Amino acid sequence: MKRSWVSGGLVAVIVGACTPPSTTRGGDSTPAAIDPPVEPFPAPASVPLPTSPHERGAEAFEYVERTPAIGWSGARDGAALVQLGGALLLIGGWTPSAVAAWGDDPTTNEVLRSIDGGRTWETILAHDPDPPKDGPGARFRRLHTAGVLTHSVDGTRYVYVIGGDHLDPEFSFPAYSGEVWRSADGSTWTRVSDQAPCRDRMLHMVASFNGALYLMGGQHELDDGTTAMNDVWKSADGGATWTRLADAPWSKRAMVYSPTEHNGELYVIGGGTYAGTDSERSYLNDVWKMSAGERWVQVLPNGHGQFEPRQYHNVVSYDGKLWIIGGYNGTRQDLDSVHWSEDGGRTWHAIAAAAWGRSHADGIAVTNEGIMHAGGSCSADGATLLHRRTSKVPVQDATTHLTRSQR
Description:
The chain is mainly beta. 0% of the residues lie in helices and 37% in strands.
């Protein structure tokens, strides 16, 4: 299937799609009141087209399928995707079906690698249900929706895995995993700490900002949204020790992947709380940013109409823009919407729906080529690149734009 249209002053091209099932997952922390769920999201008004001269030709963002089948075992809901050096690493994940290669475990600590931009993949670490904590073969336990990111320490770039997974039978209430692991190549891992502040939570958020690691939010109990948090922790020594900062002014929340540095500020967008049913969860779409001085400022309030409230979505910085990709809410469940902002999160524009279909808890990484997607609740077993290409569109065509309800 291939479609193209102009939306918000952009041309978007869809190459392929999948029809995913609707799936969900979980969270943890100290009991506290939360904001009530927002009202169902109304269809927004059309966003005016950009009027600056450089936008008249319309920038084109297209989806390009790198491979229709990575060939992994099972789905990869909650898997993390990062770029480390010249390689893509896909880490962990959850599947609703038993996977023989995982010993019928629902989650994994497999690590897959691609060195050709997502076209081909190899398993560099196979599933290990009980890896050692130190020495040869040491690494994190099986997980999904953990804190995974890249961060530099003393000139070396590492991939970090911070925290654990409520689906791992080794974790029991009230202590979850406070482990911090890192690797310079994705194959050899070192445990930096087992006392990180995520010991008491799941579905937490992690970020690399201004030379430090940050950990914030999450939930203490999976099915109780009142145990959500808004505390903020900082590590200036690569995750070995952590200092608690002032609590964030945003409401207690989890499931933002991930707080993202953009133009020298750290953004937290949307999220919510997890509970046993959709109606008991909360879904947010407010936009907050933190400066290098660790002061938070609200950019947009919760309940605005520019994009739907959501949790389990991805937030990245690419092409001078903030991006919000996919997610889940109680109105449409899995989402396929993709939005960008180039004014610091104040104004948002939609492009064509994600080529991989409706999905949440996706593996998303910004690479040298664009935004790469792999994994997520979408059942597709492939890798897709979303990137910008320069394409001149007749000005009269660029005056056509669609609301979400029209799409």
